[in-house]
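Suppose you are handed a protein chain with no further information: no name, no annotation, nothing but its sequence. What can you learn? This example shows the usual starting point.
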Amino acid sequence: MGVNLAKITGKKIITWDKGFCRTHHAFTERRLDKIFKDPDVKTFAHLECRPEIVDRVDFAGGTGDMHRYARESENGHKILFLTEQGFIDRMKVEYPHLNFQDSHMICVSMKRNDLYTTLKAMENPTSKHLIELDEEIRLKAYKAVNNMLKY
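A reasonable first move is to predict its three-dimensional structure. Written in structure tokens, the prediction is:
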């Protein structure tokens, strides 16, 4: 993601060579070629995808960008979001007038996070649930999360 953001923004971003989303990283050009067959489908890659995937699609951005794109799309528009399938399933419900193609990208880590386990962690937090941050970093992170949730 950092490599893609640096390319888009022109800013220097220090990345960790082992830092990537395994689901997005596993999505290769070969897989893209297998599922992308209709030239009328607009492709939109999440920035966590490999740089070569981001270079090949019509658009790239985060989930907020994808949501905005769906909201502003015309009736019948064909869209392939290259991101976790759960997000696409949500878009199908919110925008039934659009034709979403499935990415078949399943993230087992995201599937572990459900409302029940979140509620239990909030009701009875243990030391493994707590993250302590310097106040300055916490405020910056809070701002970033709020910005992501605005869409």
